[in-house]
Amino acid sequence: MPTALELKAVSKRYGDTVALDGVDLSVAEGETVAVLGPNGAGKTTMLSIALGLLSPGSGVVGVFGRTPVEALQAGEVGVLLQDSGLLEDVRVDELVTAVAGMYPHPVPVQRAMRAAGVEEFATRRVGRLSSGQQQRVRFALALAGDPKLLVLDEPTVGLDVESRRSLWQEVRARTAAGRTVIFATHYLTEADDYADRVVLLAGGKIVASGPVSAIKSLVGGTEVRFVLEDADVAELAILPGVRHVRIEGRAVTLRTDDSDATLRGLFAMFDVSEVRMMSTDLEDAVISLTGGRER
Amino acid sequence: MRSYLKLEVRRAFRNPAGLILLTAFPLGLYLLWTKVLNVVPQGQRVDFAAFSMVSMTTYGAMGGALFIGGAIALERSKGWSRQLAVTPLPPHGYVVAKLVSGAAGVLPSILVVLAGGALLGGVRLPLWAWPALVALIWLGVMPFAALGVAFGYTLKGQAANLAMMGVYFVLSVLGGLWLPLQAMPEGMRALAEYSPAYQAGSLGWRVLEGQWPSGTGVGLLAAWTLLFAGLAVWRYRRAL
């Protein structure tokens, strides 16, 4: 399958700080990829390099087989940046029209504005809008050119539930039509619900990459939680199937590959109470793989 | 690129603060010189109402050209250039749009101050002189557009506007736009005659005497334009 985005051994340093450390990433056309990681993990740096806004210290970047700047100027990429400014003295429809006109095959302006949910305030000045409304304008600008690749850096920050849902609806419609989407997010449920693949960044490195289910299973399938007096890590760790033990006071959490065997052993050997089982969620996986905490 | 140019031209004509700075202020100054204070300098050859009309028109147009750079600096600091960097618009497309819309925005100021001279100042000139003044003053302030772009890519936000205010003031005083060169001491006058604003003003002043631009004048203005444009290209490349 042709690749939409390819990073090969990309590194970036700021003085003594390593922002990206040998990142390899290949995104196939039609894929939806979520980039996750704690603050400072290098998400924005990686996206900036992928878009040619930053030059990589070393390594190679390709977007549809060209340089990022070539791909952008050819109108193949639509982008929503976290901290981009908008012209404040123009109307929303004027701004979307001007940006759509830069692309070779734009969608009709009305259609882009409807998709981004900015239609109701299309004739208002951008400077008069709330920050959530301005974020929707940024999304409209990203959609306006009907790009083959959509790159969204934390697209739903500041959006209410309703706008958030309609944004993802639009993203889904695009991926269903074979378009590629890469997004960075802090909301793990968004990755869980909308991404084919998750890329986990920590300390400038990709620590895990794969479908959400694979990321979860990297950490182990099931958690068993219970209450036990005087719990001892070594005693619990030898139970069948157990991969990891965590003790917080009387509360114990076991991570296990084989919950049936673990439970049998647990009831046979210990006087436990309040036993609960839960499957790993993505948040646990991210915390354990990145060593950081997501919001 | 055309769609963005259209947006920028629309913005240029919709900016009330800018239009007041570029039209009302020079027009007000013109009326102050000629109607209220009535300071006719010694050795004034042509009608002072006409002379001052050209000075103030040049002064206003020069400001319009310079402050193209102010807009660039502001938009750079507010992140608009970052947003444009992820669209198909190439960076030079932005500068071109700014220059063209800025130049278009200068035109109303030229027309308004000249009209003020004709209607309020009682300036009477042969018919050919009016379009010649519009065209020459318009062209004459183009070096300042290049200088403005250089500032716009050197400083960010309000700092650029403050710096340009200073440069604007110094250049227009030195160029004899506020008070004619005769009023200056000997040494300053020699310097002033080579300054870009004086040369821009001379294009129009000569029209009042029925003369076309002089070869040296055009040469000097071209040299200033080249210098400022070189400065602008250098700063622009550095900022990317």
Automatic annotation (TrEMBL), chain A:
<dbReference type="InterPro" id="IPR003439">
    <property type="entry name" value="ABC_transporter-like_ATP-bd"/>
</dbReference>
<protein>
    <submittedName>
        <fullName>ABC transporter ATP-binding protein</fullName>
    </submittedName>
</protein>
<dbReference type="Pfam" id="PF00005">
    <property type="entry name" value="ABC_tran"/>
</dbReference>
<dbReference type="InterPro" id="IPR017871">
    <property type="entry name" value="ABC_transporter-like_CS"/>
</dbReference>
<dbReference type="GO" id="GO:0005524">
    <property type="term" value="F:ATP binding"/>
</dbReference>
<dbReference type="GO" id="GO:0016887">
    <property type="term" value="F:ATP hydrolysis activity"/>
</dbReference>
<feature type="domain" description="ABC transporter">
    <location>
        <begin position="5"/>
        <end position="228"/>
    </location>
</feature>
<keyword id="KW-0067">ATP-binding</keyword>
<dbReference type="InterPro" id="IPR027417">
    <property type="entry name" value="P-loop_NTPase"/>
</dbReference>
<keyword id="KW-0547">Nucleotide-binding</keyword>
<dbReference type="InterPro" id="IPR003593">
    <property type="entry name" value="AAA+_ATPase"/>
</dbReference>
<keyword id="KW-0813">Transport</keyword>
<dbReference type="InterPro" id="IPR050763">
    <property type="entry name" value="ABC_transporter_ATP-binding"/>
</dbReference>
<dbReference type="GO" id="GO:0005886">
    <property type="term" value="C:plasma membrane"/>
</dbReference>
<dbReference type="GO" id="GO:0046677">
    <property type="term" value="P:response to antibiotic"/>
</dbReference>
<keyword id="KW-0046">Antibiotic resistance</keyword>
UniProtKB/TrEMBL annotation, chain B:
<keyword id="KW-0812">Transmembrane</keyword>
<feature type="transmembrane region" description="Helical">
    <location>
        <begin position="162"/>
        <end position="181"/>
    </location>
</feature>
<feature type="transmembrane region" description="Helical">
    <location>
        <begin position="95"/>
        <end position="121"/>
    </location>
</feature>
<feature type="domain" description="ABC-2 type transporter transmembrane">
    <location>
        <begin position="44"/>
        <end position="234"/>
    </location>
</feature>
<keyword id="KW-1133">Transmembrane helix</keyword>
<keyword id="KW-0472">Membrane</keyword>
<dbReference type="InterPro" id="IPR013525">
    <property type="entry name" value="ABC2_TM"/>
</dbReference>
<protein>
    <submittedName>
        <fullName>ABC transporter permease</fullName>
    </submittedName>
</protein>
<dbReference type="GO" id="GO:0046677">
    <property type="term" value="P:response to antibiotic"/>
</dbReference>
<feature type="transmembrane region" description="Helical">
    <location>
        <begin position="127"/>
        <end position="155"/>
    </location>
</feature>
<dbReference type="InterPro" id="IPR051784">
    <property type="entry name" value="Nod_factor_ABC_transporter"/>
</dbReference>
<feature type="transmembrane region" description="Helical">
    <location>
        <begin position="53"/>
        <end position="74"/>
    </location>
</feature>
<dbReference type="GO" id="GO:0043190">
    <property type="term" value="C:ATP-binding cassette (ABC) transporter complex"/>
</dbReference>
<dbReference type="InterPro" id="IPR000412">
    <property type="entry name" value="ABC_2_transport"/>
</dbReference>
<keyword id="KW-0046">Antibiotic resistance</keyword>
<feature type="transmembrane region" description="Helical">
    <location>
        <begin position="12"/>
        <end position="33"/>
    </location>
</feature>
<dbReference type="Pfam" id="PF12698">
    <property type="entry name" value="ABC2_membrane_3"/>
</dbReference>
<dbReference type="GO" id="GO:0140359">
    <property type="term" value="F:ABC-type transporter activity"/>
</dbReference>
<feature type="transmembrane region" description="Helical">
    <location>
        <begin position="212"/>
        <end position="234"/>
    </location>
</feature>
